[in-house]
Structures are given as C-alpha cells and as structure tokens.
Amino acid sequence: MVEEKSDPAQRAWVGWLAAVVVMTTAVFISVEHRARAAEQFLIAGSNALTEERYFDARRLLARAVRLNSRNGEQAQVLYLTAHSNGPAQHMSQTISAAETASAAFPNNDEIKLLLAKAYSVAGDHNLAMDLLQKIDSPDAAAEELLAGLKSSKGVAKDRIDELVERWPASPELRRVAVRGYCTIRAWAECVAQTKDAVETIQDLQDLYPLLIPALAISGKRAEAERANEALRAIEIWLHEIDQDVRAGQLARLKTADPALSDKLRCEILLRSAVHMQSSAVLEQANELRQLPCTNRWGVDLSHLTASLGAYRLARSFLVATPDEPKSIALRIKMDLNEGNHDRARELLESTMRNQTEIAQWQWLAAEVARSAGRQVEAYYHNRKAERLTNPRWNWK
Amino acid sequence: MIAEQATVLFLATIASAPGSVSFAEVASTYGIEFTHDNGARGEVHFTETVGSGVVWFDYDADGHLDLLLINSGTHPHQVADSKANAQSKLFRNNGDSFRDVTEEVGLENVGYGLGGCAADIDANGYTDLVITTFGENRLYMNVNGRLQDASDRLQDGPKFSTGCAFGDVDGDRDLDLYIVSYVDYDYQNRPFCGELPSGEPNQCVPTQFVGSRDNLLINNDGYFVEESAARGLDAGRNDRGFGVLMIDLDGDVDLDIYVANDGSANRLYRNDGRGFFSDDSLLSGAAYDQSGQPQAGMGVAAGDLWGSPLPELVVTNFAMEHNNVYTNHGAYFADDARQAGLLTPSFREVSWGVVLFDADNDADLDMVVVNGHVVPDVELIEPLMQYGQPNQFFSNHASKFSKQDAGFSGQHVSRGLAAADFDNNGTIDLAIINQNGPAELWQNTTQHGEIRWAGLTLEGLPPNTDAIGAKIQFNYSERLHTRFRTAGDSFLSQSDPRFLVPVAPHSDKAQVTINWPDGSKSTAEIPVSRYTVVAQPDSGK
Predict the structure, then answer these.
(1) Fewer CB near the terminus (10 Å): N or C of chain A?
(2) d(CA B246, CA B3)
(3) Calpha distance A18→B431 (Å, rounded)
(4) What is the reported pLDDT for B341?
C-alpha cells in the first residue's frame, strides 16, 4: 500500500481555505445575527411606539439604532419619534441623537423635521425655522409657524398666507395658521378663521384665549364676552370633573350648550359620560347617537358602552370606522364574549394576514385560541407576542 | 465699618465703566446676616419650592428704609432641629449699617413665612406689616416702632398664602388688603410625584394641586373682612397665585388688581370704583402670553416703560416660557415680550422677583429679574437646566430691553427681590432672598458723572397717608414720564414706596405733577439731592 503524501503547499492551501470559510461563515452568522437582532428590536420598539409606551420604545429603538442594521434609517426615525413624544426627556440628549441621525441620513426629511422639533423644544427657534424651511411638507410648515411664533424673529403674515396656500388641505397647519394670525395681531383673519378651526375642547382652550381679546380689540365686545363665557363654562366643567374624580365620585351629569358646534357637544357629552354611572352613560350614548359624533368619537364610545355590556349599541358606534385597529380588536372581543368564536377567528385571521409582527394581534390571537380550547396555539401566539414586545437578544 | 464700605465701593467703582450700570454685594459689610431655610429635610414638600420675600419699610419713621427678610424654617409638622431658629428678621437701617432688631421690636417667630407687605393702616405715622405664611397670616400694628401682633383682625383663615398688597379698593380711603393664595397643600397627604435619578423623591408640579381662593379683605374699622366672592373675585377661586399688584390700570382713578398665577390665566380684575370687580383677564389680553398660552406666573411689576401714562405690566415665568411685557393700550394689553427683546433671555430661566426702576438716571425704567430653578438636581433630569441661575439686569433703551452685565456674578437660586434707595443717595439698591442661602444686599455703584436727582415721599390724606394709588408725572429728555405708587410688587416682596426723579444738568429742582388717589391734582417743585415729603392738599372732599 502506497501511502499518499499530500503536497505541503496543497495542505496549506486547504487549511487556508478552511480558515477563510470558517471565518466568513462566522462573520456571516454574526452579521446575520446582528441584523436579526436589530430587526427584532425595531419591531418591538415600533410596537411599543404604537402602544404609546414611550420609555420602552426609546429603550428598544436605541438598541436597534446601535446595532446599525440595514433598517438603520427607519430605526433612527422611530427612535427620534419616540423621543419627541410622551413624557419629557433630556432635551440635550434628543438634540444629540437627532444631530447624529441627521448627519448619517442628511436627505431624510423626517429626521430633519424631528431635529428641528428638538431645537424648538430647547428654545433654539431660529435654528429650527431655518431647518424647517428646507422641508416641503405640511407638517414642516406647521412646525415652522410654531417655532416662528416663539422665535425672536417672529413670523410675517405673508409667510402664513403662503404656507396655507401651499398646503390648503392640512387641518393641522390651518389650526396653527389661525394661531399665527392671532399672535401676530392680524385681527381680521384671527376673528374670521378661529371658529372654523375649533373642533375639540383642546382647540377651544388653545384658540379662544387668542380669539377673545381679538374680538374685544376689534370692537366686538358682546361677541368677546360670549366667547369668554363659553370658555369659562368649559373650564368650570373640566374642573368639576377633575374634582369629582379626585374625590372618587361619579361625575355630575353634564349637558352640552346647544350653541356649541356638534363636534364640541359630542366631546363634552363623551368626556362627561366617561365618569358616570352606567345607566347615565347609556342615556348619554343614545343622545350622542343623535349627533354626528361617530366618526371622531365612535371608537371611544363603543369601548365605553361595550364595557357596560351594551354590545349592540357599541357596534353601532363602530360602523363609521370598520378598519381602525381599535375597532377590529373590540369587535373580536365582543364576538368572544358573545361566544361567537368562529366569527372572531375569521375576523382576526383576515386582519393578521399582513400584520403578523404586531404584538397586539398576537395577544388577541392567543385569547381567541384559548377561548376555543386550543392551548398549544395560544402558547405559540403568546410566545410570539412576548418576543415582539421584549426581544431577548443580548447585544450591547 | 466705613473703611470697609469705602473699599467695597472703590473696588466696584474701578470695575465699572462710566455710564454702565453696576451693583456690588454689601450685605455683610452693612451687618446683614440672614440665611434662608425652606425646611427641606429630605421629605420633599411642595412648599419648599416657593422661597420667601423682602419688604423695605421704614418701621421707625426715621427716614431710612429698614429691611425685613422673611424666612420659612421648619415645616409646621416637623420637629424643631438645629436649623429651626431660622426666622424672619427685621434689620434697622442706621444710615451707615444695619442692626438686627427682630426681638427688640417684638417680631416673634411668624411660622412658615412667605411674603409680606406694609402700609400705615391706622395713620399713626408708623408703618404696619403683614406677613403671609403657610398657615395663619400675621398682622402687626406698629405703635411707635413696636410691632404688636393683631393677627386676629384678619378674617382669612389658614392657607398657603403668598403675595399681598394694601390699597383702598372701595373708595372709603382706608386701606383694604388683598392676600394671594397658592394651592391646597396637605403635609400628611403628599402625592407621589416620581423619583429623581438619584432615587430621591421628585418635586411635584403645581398642576397636581388644586388652586386656592385669594382673599380680598375689606377694612372695617381696622378689622379685615373677607369679601372676595361678594365683590366679583370668584373667577379666581381655583387659581394658583403668587405676585399681586394693586394699581390703576385704566386711568379711571381706582385700584384694579392684577395677579400672576402659576399655570393658569393671570387675573385682571377691573374695579368699578366702589370696590366691586369684573374679571377682565381674557378680554383685556393680559391673561396669557402672546401665543394665547397660560404660563407659570410668579412675580409681577408695573410701570411706564414706553412713555404711556398707563402702566405696562411685567410678569415673570418658569423655564421654557418667556417673561411677559404687557403693553398697555388702554382698552387692551398686548404681550410684547418679543418686541421688547425678552423672548430669548428669559427662556431657560425660572424667574421670580422683578423690579422696574431707573438704574442709570435717564428716566427710563430698567429691570432686574432674579432666577433659580425649583428642583435641586435638575441637571440630572435635564442637562440644559441648572438649579442656580444668573440674575439679570435689563437696560431699557429705545423701547427695548437689552441684557447687560451689572455685576450679579455667579449662579443663584433667588426668589424674593425688592428695590430701595437704602443709603438715600439717589440710586436704587436691591435686596434678594436666596433659597437656603444668604440674603444679599446689592448696592448701586453706577457712575453717572454728576448725579442729579430729587426724592419724593407722598403723604396722602388720612387714613391713606401712604398715598397708595397716587401717581406722579414729570418731563425729562423731552418726554413725559409717569411713576405709580403701587401696592404689592415683585415676588412676595415690597419695594421702596418713595419716588426718584432725575434732574436735568444745571437745574436745582424737579417739577412734578401729582395725581392723588382721590383724583385731585397738585404740582410741586422738589429740590435736588434729598428726599422731600409732599403732603396732599386737603380740598375738603
């Protein structure tokens, strides 16, 4: 038997090749592992953001950003969005993060907008304005006006006109523009446009303090006094609710002034209903049905009435918003409570088809499976939901 | 003592360029030793954020303004500790030094003191005093320089009281009293307001508490009866108030009331002349900032800033807001903070005391604002903020304020501020209370060249001998200037009740017109370089 001796050069080459393969594989696995980790943190952070868990979102998305994956740009946007919302955070930290993101993705308008917002919050309004003027969007226009109104430069009426003309369909910009007209003392525009811009109690609280002196200055004293009374009535009413809640009592029944717009009356009745005893809520809910409230307040109302077991009434409030995630979730829960498992499952499956990475649906799927006695499936959905909420990757 | 003072003034003088405004800190040189104590012992109570005030008044009627420094001390429920002897102190002004006369005059420990105001209520020639507290407010009647506790004459009950002001609101000539109230606070039920990164409890924010009704106490034969609701002040029953002014804002010869509120609309109550008020806050435009947003109102001052015979209002606010300058247009006010150059310099400061005075003898009213955050570890929460902040001097030139270095070196956590010409040299000096720190006395060391001034003390017809509500007018640099005898001032404080008028070179007197509180007028020629008492002519009204 002849012993075959391999060529030393060949052996070295094979060894070298093996080492390269091993190292490449390791690097590939590492990169892939890192990318998957980033992906998981991005998903979990996005879920937390959707659920308005801002601290969680900031923590999770910060890790997604640090892992610097192929979705880095999206991660940066979501991370900064989480910083711009929710409870107060370090202004300097937010600015620093936004500047880093902006340097990495200089053409991303969303990042520019978030950076400008951060400057504005920290008081650098002129800097924010300069940046916002480079972004062509209604959101940026609204932010530009807000920053300008607080800046030492101020805002010219022509600029407000120009932006409103550029983005006529943006309700948010319109509200800010009205605020702008009032602030720069363009009284005629302020008086003419404020009432149309008021859709919510918050709008009223924001804009009436500007409208009231504007009316008085414009010689419409009687109208100013009426507006003053309306604002005062709302504030007293909100204070009374606050007192009732602090005292642990049910809120006093509130009636909405018929002179107010339907939208405001809807909100007043709804907010009043939240703290009432059940029969009063149902009465209130019936009254609300007479008003065109369902678009804006339908989901809240349906949750309220559903919590009292009035499912039929609750469903009627959902007609206008069939595709909203909150509507779908409530319909599924009501189906389950009524024992209609098949309909619940059907609706859930059709909804989840393209949204398997959303934790909310996974939790709900677990509930549906459990109610039908499918414990293994419930376990699977629970695990998946947990992973989407809190990934266990140990990347620093 | 005199050698020490001379050294301080000499050093301050050589440090300041001619014409630029400068102050030098001289508290210890003049014998003022006072350390504020807010009672913080680790429990973190909301009352600790407020601080206290300064009152300049001439308690012994010797022509030198004396200095009351109000202290808080331990909380009412706490056991007295080594720092528990912190109490309010009255310093007598000897002309060239101050002496602690607290015990001598009978001013005992007032409790958790916060603010103060002073006026001669009974027209006996001696100025009486109110100290507001967390608890029962104190009224001291001054009899020949002795302060006698007459708190039972105040029918207002225990509260978290802050600012106060005397003035004749109902036109019967005797002085009524407005006491501002902050929030309902219960030491035993402190809400949990989160934790700092250090693990210490976080300080609560004002909106976590329900506001508390202010009191309008009508003087009824020396007893002060609460009539706020009956007199139209009910709108503010849930406000969280601090600074207050009584001043004629619309020129109709009665005292209106303006209150700076923390986190809600500031209140402007217009007087109908008989002491009944209407809430004109929103309609007047003086309730919110120029964007229509409520701010955290702290201190308030009023004066003729831009040459109008009606007073402008200045309100100090929290950080991330700006201080307001409400220009008085007669029918309405407009927040001109931007136009006045105050947006940026007041954005990161938490501002409290504010005084308007002519610092450089050009007749325009300049401004000092004192600052300081409420959270000791705020840097840990937000690195852009600091607990200690610089106090600020703003020079008024061509209808705009510009921030200038006037020597207020260092970072402070200041609260109360009041202005007075304590050395009777024709320039305004300042006293400042700092949270848990020493009080400061800032002497005006501005070099004017040859200062020409005339001082004026108004003596109204009794019982309003303080002439609260009067105003004087004089011409200087081709413009008519107006000064107001206001009540209430700054933040929980009270400034010099006298007037200073700049006098043109080569003239040896100032010509002033006096509008007395009852609407009558007189003129007077005031000699330079001293204070002159001008009594109201008795027209037999």
Answers:
(1) N
(2) 42
(3) 82
(4) 93
The pLDDT value given to residue A268: 76
Which residue spans within chain A are E strands per DSSP? Answer: none
Provide the 10 A C-beta neighbour count for residue B268.
26
CA nearest to A308, candidates A336, A334, A347, A331: A334
| B125 to A42, B1, B317: CA distances (angstroms) | 76, 31, 37
**Nearest-angstrom CA–CA distance, B200 and B187:** 17
**pLDDT, mean of residues B491-506:** 95
Provide CB contacts within 8 A for B472, sequence distance 6+.
B456, B458, B482, B483, B485, B499, B501, B512, B513, B514, B515
User: Is B216 in contact with B178 (CB distance < 8 Å)?
Assistant: yes
Percent pLDDT > 90 in chain B is 77
Q: Is B535 on the interface with A (CB under 8 A)?
A: no
Whole-angstrom distance, CA of residue A208 vs CA of residue A185 = 14
CA–CA dist B296, B157 (Å, integer): 26
Residue B210: its chain A contacts at CB < 8 A? Answer: 242-243, 246
B28 vs B13: CA distance, rounded Å? 18
In tens, the pLDDT along A338-349 reads: 999 899 999 999
Asked if B417 contacts B242 with a C-beta cutoff of 8 angstroms, the reply is no
Flag whether residue B470 sits within 8 Å of chain A, measured between CB atoms.
Answer: no
A352 interface with B at CB cutoff 8 Å: no
**CB–CB contact B332 A213 (8 Å):** yes
pLDDT value at B79 more than 70:
no
**Dist. CA A327–CA A314, nearest whole Å:** 10
Q: What are phi and psi of A236, to 5 degrees?
A: -65, -45
In the stretch 145-174 of chain A, residues with CB closer than 8 A to chain B read 149-152, 154
Q: Return the half-sphere exposure (C-beta side, CA atoms, 13 A cut-off) of residue B88.
A: 29
Q: Do B384 and A92 contact (CB within 8 A), yes or no?
A: yes
Q: Which of A51, A50, A78, A53 is nearest to A63 (CA)?
A: A78
Other beta carbons less than 10 A from residue A83's beta carbon: 25
Residue (of A323, A259, A325, A315) closest to A289 by Cα position: A315
B60 vs A24, which has greater pLDDT? B60
A379-391 pLDDT, tens per residue?
999 888 888 887 7
> Global pTM?
0.86
- Helix (H) or strand (E) holding B415, with range, is strand B414-420
Q: Do B290 and A183 touch (CB under 8 A)?
A: yes
Q: Is B189 on the interface with A (CB under 8 A)?
A: no
Dihedral sign computed on CA atoms, order B108, B113, B114, B120? negative
In the DSSP assignment, the letter for residue B49 is G
**Nearest-Cα residue of chain A relative to residue B346:** A123
Interface ipTM: 0.82
Q: Helix H segments across B195-354?
A: 281-284
Q: Beta strand pairing status for B453-459 and B531-535?
A: parallel
**Of the ranges A308-322, B164-178, B201-215, B420-434, which one carries the lowest mean pLDDT score?**
A308-322
B193 touches chain A (CB under 8 A): no
Contacts of A221 by beta carbon, 8 Å cutoff, 6+ apart: A215, B283
Tokens linked to A48:
């937390």
**Distance, CA of A304 to CA of A309 (rounded, Å):** 9
Question: B374 to chain A, minimum CA–CA distance in Å?
Answer: 17
pLDDT single digits (tens) B299-314: 999 999 999 999 999 9
**C-alpha–C-alpha distance, residues A317 and A297, integer Å:** 8
Q: pLDDT at residue B347 above 80? A: yes
Task: Write phi, then psi, for B148 (nearest 5 degrees).
Answer: -110, 130
